[in-house]
Amino acid sequence: MGAQPASAFKDQEAGLAVILQNVLHAKWPAVLLSAGAVISVFSVTLVTIYGQTRILFAIGRDGLIPKSFHSVNPRTLAPVFNTVVVCVLVGLVGGFVDSAYLWDMVSMGTLVAFSLVSVGVIVMRYKAPNLERGFKLPFGPWVIPGLSIAVCMFIVKDLPTTTYQVFFVWMAAALVGYFAYGIRHSKLGQLKLASKRQGDR
């Protein structure tokens, strides 16, 4: 027997909290659960911001974005400028963008990123077969990454059309930034260009 009829979940914002309140006939468990949910949102947001600053730090180190994102405080060695930019942007987006739309965009970005990482596993296995690796992927280079891509795309297919439209606009902007700035300033690109020049000599 279920905790409540399936029809009761329609338009119900805090299903688990309501179920706890109905089953236990007390409000405090629902309040405690809701407080835990709020705290978990803050912790996830903090970890996401922390991760994003490190991603931008690495991209800046590779030269794909301005060097200011790679700069660190000489005393704490923390990417202060990077962190301030990310926090301000996250605050503005979180404060002015509808949450339901925002969740869809976050889901789209995360799932596509997971898919690209899975594609990268397959590509690297064939482009650099002798590269030293810290772990072994079971069932060869196709099965696990392939399943990962399939599951991510299965979830992505149900996202709203607006999410797709905005996602492709962001992707187009990223590609413009890459070809206008990143490809000319990247350390890898400069290394290949230098090696090509030496070969021409």
SS strand fraction: under 5%
Element pattern in H and E: HHHHHHH
Mean pLDDT: 85
Query: How far apart lie the N and C ends?
Result: 79 Å
List low-confidence stretches. Answer: none
Structural class: mainly alpha
Rounded Rg = 23 Å
Helix content: over 70%
Give the biggest sheet. none
Q: What is the number of beta strands?
A: 0
Helical region count?
7
Q: Which geometry do the CA atoms define?
A: extended
Overall description:
The chain has 201 residues and is mainly α. It has a domain of 78 residues. The protein is built from seven helices and no strands. The radius of gyration is 23 Å and the shape is extended. The chain starts with 14 loop residues before the first helix and ends with a helix. The mean pLDDT is 85.
